[in-house]
Amino acid sequence: MQLLNLKDTVSFMSLRVPALIFSVILMLLSVLSLATNSLNWGLDFTGGTLVEVGYEQQADLSDIRARLQNSGFPDAVVQNFGSSSEVLIRLAPRENVKASELSNQVMQALELTTSNIRRVEFVGPSVGEELAEQGGLAMLVALLCILVYVAMRFEWRFALGSVVALAHDVLLTLGLFSFLQLEFDLTVLAAVLAVIGYSLNDTIVVSDRIRENFRKVRKSEPEEIINISLTQTLNRTVITSLTTIFVLLALFFVGGALIHGFATALLFGVVIGTYSSIYVASLVALMLGISKEDLIPAEVEKEGEELESTPFS
Amino acid sequence: MNNPRTAILNHTPVWKATLVFLVVAFFTLYASPNLYGEDPAVQISAERTAPVDTNLLDQVQSILAERNIATKSVALEDQKILVRLADNDTQLQAQEALDIALSDDYIAAINLAPATPEWLKSLGASPMKLGLDLRGGVYFLMEVDMDTALNTKLEDTVSDFRTALREENIRYRRVVKEGNVVEIQFRDEATKDEAKFFLRNSRGDWQYSDQDDLTLVAQMSEQTLAETKDYAIKQNITIMRNRVNQLGVAEPVIQRQGPDRIVVQLPGIQDTARAKQILNATATIELRMVDQDNDLNSAISGRVPAGSQLIEDENGTPVLLKKRVMLTGNHIVDANSGVDEYGRPQVSISLDSEGGSKMTRGTRDNVGKPMATVFIEYEPTRERTAEGKLKFEKKERVISVATIQAVLGSSFRITGLDTPGEARNLALLLRAGALIAPIQIVEERTVGPSLGQQNISQGTDAIVLGFVIVLAFMLIYYKGFGVVANVALAANLILIIGVMSLIPGATLTLPGMAGIVLTVGMAVDANVLIFERIREELRDGRSPQQSIHHGYDSAFSTILDANITTLIAALILFAVGTGPIKGFSVTLMVGIVTSMFTAIILTRAIVNSIWGGKRLSKLSI
To answer: Which of A229, B327, B333, B339 sits in a 20 to 30 Å window from A267, CA-based?
Structure first.
């Protein structure tokens, strides 16, 4: 069986101008949305208290709201979570009350016992700030390390191309979360970093093939080489994306409400990552003027050969 | 086709194939304990030196039998008694019954005991550790208030400087705390220089500099600053340990995190409100004189004199103490264990100036008499007040009795201790009584047992479903080679679980399960790369054997590059992430390494043994 039976080379790069416009527009929209809507930061980053309560039968949300109102929590956000018998209560950080005691007060107000409590999360404001800082730092460090590795293994144009592709994927994923106002918490951050890993995987495979073809195929324009390489790897790109999307769908539908944000970010990221490895990474390398000469210095050849003569025969 | 090289191509030596098989078998063995699950259990251990023996075992069995609590097994292993129960309800009943019936010397803690069979246990195999989000439990991040700790230190120093300068007859205008430094003003420069000389020699842990002609500024040295902070953290950790022991948690984690934080993890705990109250409770120390005027025995038999009180010591022996408190623990600035000039263990104690003068007054007439140190804790009871708050019971315990050798001042020492260990404990408890820095919860994550269970089942469902879909897809798409890839995928899943079970610190969390799902989806990538390469080679007209050979060879460096870069991302995630996120990055990293093994080495061995060395006209790919 063959998913895509491609006899001829697909001229991907002929669509580079529309692709460029498409990416730039999406990126601008993402920036715009992030600037105006910001992200719907989760508790992990804003600080505050969250209590998830499970009832025997369907929960009466308006009764819960009224009780909380009477107990001095007028700002409590009450909503169903996962099913109609489960309720999520969010409280903003407040002054003068020992924040770690808030969840106990909620329990008293709603006359709950410990067995009703499914989950309590409390994050102090300083911790939230730190987590956000660390998260941003992690993303930058990851991009930088990858830039260095790819530059060492390939060539700086590829490195820059793959990092631009990664930044593109991260930006669009953040843009989506901002546009849809989906909650952005620590697990989503982990998913975004996983998107970086995945998208990179794709980009490396494509770049590797481009490098190989630059050495192997004689007398061709860079654009042609890139087209050939993209066509050759297209089947693999699509199949791997498909299997990954399959498992992510499984995660999205049966993995439970806690993992929804994670699955959403990755699903979107994988689709975008697949697109960016075809268009963004190669396009940037092409625009930076990648050529045969750049990829055939004696040193790189040697290193490549060393790795390619595998011990696993 | 008659090329003799085709016969050598795609042949895996027997030793290599055996090795690959053995690796898979090894990890399968160590992954297998996860199939047996865990029993809800109650674990009974001794708090101090109380014996855990067959007598206790009999006692436990009779307590449970009396209350008609059915058990799976009751066994004595490594100084602990483990009671296995059928479900969570009986577990709680048993814990409560044992907690009430057994004496205070024992801790009855709820626990999950792996139901791993004996033969596997003897090989050191055990199931994966589950994170709090799967197992249920409480995670607290507590922050020690360093500002207060430093402030206290500065204030103590101000009064210490005042006393010392006065004793030396060095006249000062004023000594004040100014921000992070202590400022001392003098009337003339000569006195200032004299004071500087004196303080440098007697209090070398401070740095002195001249602000102007009449003002001396004392600043804490970097080392003193670090020591003060370190001390505040260690003290709080000691207190937390003591308190957590009362909670009945089998495997608590109490760790320092960063410069001023403490992580407390209490797996499996049910009553989280109670946990919070206990951790926030306070402990103090009192120094009191032993009552020698009245008879101990008559007091034990019930005639306790009006001004005295009977308090038990560590071993349960009662001591008759005067009710009047000579000194309370909040005056203790520091307490350290060490040895005296004869090499005997001792504890040296420093008090603040107020405590020093109280001590002088209190000991003036009592030289040669015994003084007792009483440790006071507020332990929660099972009762609650009308508002639902826990009732706390004051518990007093004599932790040392020592004879006063001379009139004591702001620093003195307790000698006559039996062992260095005893001295260390006493120093810790003395410090615990004088909390120099308050502590507060800055992060809390509580997962109830029902949600934990639900997370496990949903996570498992997602892994199984994702796994089945990928298996089906690979089978349809690559036929014969698809079967090989599927074997590799299954082996990969087993390897991940095996490795996770073997690494002592690895914990499975819900994001970790998501990581496994993701790995299942991405692990086939290496095989897809190889197989697509083989198809390409076939299309280019190479023989099947050569295609297999070239397919594997040329895909290798690509796979390596792709995996290393993903590994970089996972490593960074591990370095900066906390808790569940770390769990995700661990499974991701483990998955990357194991999938390289299964997708390249394992499939190559299988492919070679099926297709290698044969004359083939086409491949099932």
So the answer is: A229
Cross-strand partners of A81: A83
The values of phi and psi at residue B47, to 5°, are -75, -45
Task: Name all contacts of B315-324 with Cβ < 8 Å and 24+ positions apart.
Answer: B319/B290, B319/B372, B319/B398, B319/B401, B320/B290, B320/B291, B320/B294, B320/B296, B321/B288, B321/B289, B321/B290, B321/B291, B321/B372, B321/B374, B321/B398, B322/B288, B322/B289, B322/B290, B322/B291, B323/B288, B324/B288, B324/B289
Query: Chain B closest CA to A243's CA: distance in Å?
Result: 5
Question: Buried b vs exposed e over B187-223: b needs ≥16 C-beta within 10 Å?
Answer: eeeebbebbbeebeeeeeebebeeeeeebbbbebeee
- Cβ(B118)–Cβ(B490) under 8 Å? no
pLDDT tier, A246 (very low <50, low <70, confident <90, very high otherwise): very high
Task: Give yes or no for a contact between A81 and A88, defined as CB atoms under 8 angstroms apart.
Answer: yes
B5 contact partners, CB below 8 Å, separation of at least 6: none
Residue A296 distance to chain B (closest CA, Å): 17
- Virtual torsion, Cα B13, B19, B20, B26, nearest 10 deg: 160
Which residue of A153, A243, A253, A274 to mutate against B (max B Cβ within 10 Å)? A243
DSSP designation for A268: H
Contacts of B532 in chain A (CB under 8 A): 233, 235-236, 239
Q: For chain A, say whether B458 makes contact (Cβ under 8 Å).
A: yes
Determine whether the interchain pair B462/A313 forms a contact, defined as Cβ–Cβ distance below 8 Å.
Answer: no
Name the stretches of chain B with pLDDT < 70.
1-8, 47-49, 104, 242, 246-247, 270, 273-274, 277-278, 280-284, 377-393, 425, 428-429, 431-438, 578-580
Q: Report the SS3 class of residue B334.
A: strand
- Alpha-carbon distance B130 to B509, whole Å? 6
CA dist B601 and A312 (Å) reads: 6
What mean pLDDT comes out for the span A119-148?
83
Judged by a CB distance cut-off of 8 A, whether residue A194 touches chain B is yes
pLDDT reading at A299 higher than 50: no
Q: What percent of the residues of chain B are helix, what percent strand, and what percent coil, each to the nearest 5?
A: 50, 25, 25
Does position A305 have pLDDT exceeding 50, yes or no? no
Q: How far apart are the first and last CA of chain A?
A: 27
DSSP string covering B94-162: HHHHHHHHS-TTEEEEEEEEE---HHHHHTT--PPEEPHHHH-EEEEEEEE-HHHHHHHHHHHHHHHHH
CA pair distance B174, B215, nearest whole angstrom: 10
Task: Using the predicted structure, report yes or no on whether residue A26 has a pLDDT greater than 90.
Answer: yes
Q: Is B206 helix (H, G, I), strand (E, B) or coil?
A: strand
8 Å CB contact of A248 and B451: no
pLDDT of residue B4: 45
d(CA B318, CA B324): 18
Q: Residue B153, Cβ neighbours under 10 Å: how many? A: 21
Q: Is A66 on the interface with B (CB under 8 A)?
A: no
Q: Are strands A40-41 and A183-184 parallel, antiparallel or unpaired?
A: parallel
CB contact under 8 A, A204 and B568: no
Instruction: Collect all residues of chain B within an 8 Å Cβ-Cβ radius of residue A212.
Output: 554
> In sequence order, what are the residues at sequence separation of 6 or more whose Cβ sits closer than 8 angstroms to the Cβ of residue B138?
B132, B264, B265, B266, B269, B272, B275, B444, B445, B446
Specify the amino acid at residue B449.
P
| Chain A residues 23-52 with a CB less than 8 Å from chain B | 52
Q: Is the pTM of this model over 0.80?
A: no
- Count CB pairs under 8 A between chains A and B: 256
Please state the ipTM of this predicted complex. Answer: 0.85
Contact of B380 with B281, CB cutoff 8 Å: yes
Residue A28: predicted pLDDT: 96
